[in-house]
Amino acid sequence: MKQFKQEGYVGGIESFVLVSMYILVKLFFHIPRELSAEAGTASWMVPIIACITVIPIFLCIERVANRFSRASLLSISGLFWGRYVQWFLGLLLTLLLIVHSGYQMRIFAEFIIMTLLPSTSIATIIISSTVLCIFLAYNGLENLSRTAWLLFPLAIFVFLVSIFLIGFQGHLYYLSPWLGYGELATIETGIRFMGLYKEMMLLMLIAPLFRKQKVFRRVGFGSLLFSASLFTIVQIVLHLNFPFPGAKEVGFPLYQLARLINLQFILQRLEPFMVFAWSTVSTVGIAVGFYASALAATQGSRAPDYRPFLVPLALLAVMVAFIPESSIEAVNTYTTLMMLFPIVFYGLPVITWMWMTFFYREPEETK
Length: 367
What we know:
With about 375 residues, the protein is mainly alpha-helical. It has a single domain, classed as Amino acid/polyamine transporter I, CATH 1.20.1740.10. It is about 70% helix and about 0% strand. It is built from 15 helices and no strands. The protein has helices at about 10-25, 30-40, 45-65, 75-80, 85-115, 120-140, 140-170, 185-190, 200-205, 215-240, 255-260, 270-300, 305-320, 325-340, 340-360. Helix 1 crosses helix 12 (about 270-300), helix 3 (about 45-65) crosses helix 15 (about 340-360) and helix 12 crosses helix 13. The chain starts with 11 loop residues before the first helix and ends in a 9-residue tail after the last helix.
């Protein structure tokens, strides 16, 4: 499979960090609150159930990539169904990724206004973050993944220390009843929230950039398990400190949790450090979204380079970010999109795998 112009290979650790950060962006939004509202005190089980449900979908991606020497899924769809289907699927994925990134930017800007820059206009924050994300995405996945790897250790250290300190002062009995609304209701909620890991579709697009199939496999499983672990820990800590139903009323849960840290004369007000971790992960994650949308457009149109698509698509994402009239509308719409987007992001690799398994036969000259 021919590589795109000026694209290098990505390392396993760097790509694991990048995919994980892309998935975990929503952890710092309102999603922990939504999980609490839907599953009650059993919300910590939802990420685990969702991860178990998503693993078979990743196996479909991994087996299709292995069969075709880690070609991108859009390239494989062109091989199966022709260039017009490839073009349509590329356009569809591009639009979905742009909408996804646009709403993430809007919620990110609302958080910055609430915590750091209350007098700054939302347009200034959105445009500034867009310029930064374009800069990060322009040099390709190799440089983007290395940037993520440089920032990740400090961000995850601050995050884990904060979570530990918050959990230490919580109350275990707040987690009861242990099964929330019941076993069946919790399982059903876990299946509905499969969209927690929808960003793993990035692996469908960057499969050609891995040197070995085993690295591709490890990155996929590693990022899913790591993300599920953090989602689960956050839900546990949230309910240790906010008894239900108060947990489902918290605006930005992680920020509100960080504000609870108070070790008397030793340490107080750790939330600025949490804001650093949140901003770092969110900025890199949104930049990955820009890159993924440009890459989908490139692969769908069979263009030689993704860079010409980057700025126009980023501008479209900015337009999407201004569509919601309020932060509440942005949050509600983003939650709805998280339920709908997996239909495409998960459905495409499953259909491709089924077609490969039951209908595709290699040409005689390639056997």
